[in-house]
């Protein structure tokens, strides 16, 4: 019998380049659909690559019902949409929740950087005085913390509101912290996740590092050429098991434990021995009291860059030893691209759905085996398995690493 204080996931909300909403996202994921297309949000003719993952047909007015969507950034718009979808999916009546006992914890990498980009364009085109006057209102929505704050404002939640700015591991940090708040008894409901809009700054930055694939993202493939920049959001509704059971809520999985670390090595490169990755995975397994041979699937960080995929594989092999070769590992970034601070939140949602449906999403675009990446990466086609316990990895710039263990209830 599960302890009443165990932390469970009762709602999922997703806004991604392969679909908005749980059903559309999951169906596209297991079908192996590619969400990387020609970029339309700005002119890329000056750059070496021209493709990325943009959310299609997103209408923020459908989700922002209490605040004016035109006065908030795209990151907040997508976060609000993901939160509303998670609440609806979990059958959570906002009017019956205690707003002071509800937390909103989101992660991000670039925050609302498109706002800064637009203000910069205004200043350049109209002159500093006129441009500053025009961009004044927009600047109020620029600070990163406005993403969770706008979610709280939309739904009237007045419990803890926090932002995790730990780059591409931020979603897992948010979920872990949200679980901590519930276990400490400080709140009764948490909306945890991540959101990042498509950013010109990120696109240019990764291009300048020669880290962006020109066409397709090929995690763990010998011919991989880099990541694909992308955007998206995910929100997970977290509650204590006793609360969820009393209201007969749907339960996807239990948050069994998480682990964080920092490899203290380099701003952009992982430690060559996988120190940060190994520490976060080890910490997560210990917190979840989970032996390595009980992990049924590993949702990889799997960016498609040479260094990340090699080091992540090395870390998995060093921790799991012989079991590494028996455990399916896949990267959904092959379909979504890298959604920055939303990535690990989206991957946590996908991991919960893997547990629910017993299907592991594939690593698409996999063509040639790399001798240094020699695990089972579920190439190109989804696979049916009984996945009761899943490890979800996320490793970020600045050495920030976070791993999450989810377990069937």
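-> sequence recovered:
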């Amino acid at each position: 019998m599960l302890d009443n204080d165990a932390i469970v996931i009762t709602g999922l909300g997703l806004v991604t380049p392969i679909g908005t909403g749980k059903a559309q996202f999951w169906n596209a994921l297991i079908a192996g659909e590619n969400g990387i297309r020609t970029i339309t949000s700005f002119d890329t003719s000056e750059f070496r690559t021209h493709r990325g993952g943009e959310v299609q047909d997103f209408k923020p007015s459908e989700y922002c019902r209490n605040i004016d969507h035109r006065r908030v950034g795209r990151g907040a718009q997508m976060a609000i949409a993901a939160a509303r979808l998670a609440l609806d999916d979990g059958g959570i009546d906002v009017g019956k929740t205690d707003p002071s006992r509800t937390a909103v914890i989101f992660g991000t990498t670039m925050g609302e950087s498109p706002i800064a980009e637009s203000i910069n364009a205004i200043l350049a085109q109209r002159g500093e005085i006129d441009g500053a006057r025009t961009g004044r209102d927009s600047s109020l929505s620029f600070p990163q913390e406005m993403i969770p704050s706008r979610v709280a404002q939309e739904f009237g939640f007045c419990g803890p509101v926090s932002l995790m700015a730990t780059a591409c591991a931020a979603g897992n940090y948010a979920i872990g912290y949200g679980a901590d708040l519930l276990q400490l008894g400080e709140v009764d409901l948490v909306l945890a996740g991540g959101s990042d809009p498509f950013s010109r700054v990120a696109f240019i930055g990764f291009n300048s590092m020669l880290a962006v694939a020109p066409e397709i993202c090929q995690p763990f493939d010998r011919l991989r050429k880099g990541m694909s920049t992308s955007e998206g959001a995910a929100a997970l509704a977290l509650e204590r098991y006793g609360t969820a059971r009393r209201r007969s809520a749907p339960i996807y999985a239990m948050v069994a434990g998480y682990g964080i670390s920092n490899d203290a090595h380099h701003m952009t490169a992982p430690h060559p021995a996988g120190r940060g990755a190994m520490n976060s995975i080890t910490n997560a397994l210990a917190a979840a009291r989970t032996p390595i041979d009980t992990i049924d699937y590993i949702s990889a960080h799997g960016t498609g860059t040479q260094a990340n995929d090699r080091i992540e594989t090395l870390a998995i092999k060093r921790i799991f030893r012989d079991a590494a070769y028996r455990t399916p590992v896949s990267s959904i970034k092959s379909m979504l691209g890298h959604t920055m601070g939303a990535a690990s939140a989206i991957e946590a949602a996908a991991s919960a759905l893997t547990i629910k449906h017993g299907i592991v999403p594939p690593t698409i675009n996999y063509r040639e085996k790399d001798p240094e990446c020699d695990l089972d990466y579920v190439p190109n086609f989804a696979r049916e398995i009984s996945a009761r316990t899943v490890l979800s990895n996320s490793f970020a710039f600045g050495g920030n690493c976070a791993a999450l263990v989810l377990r069937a209830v």
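The chain has a mean pLDDT of 94.
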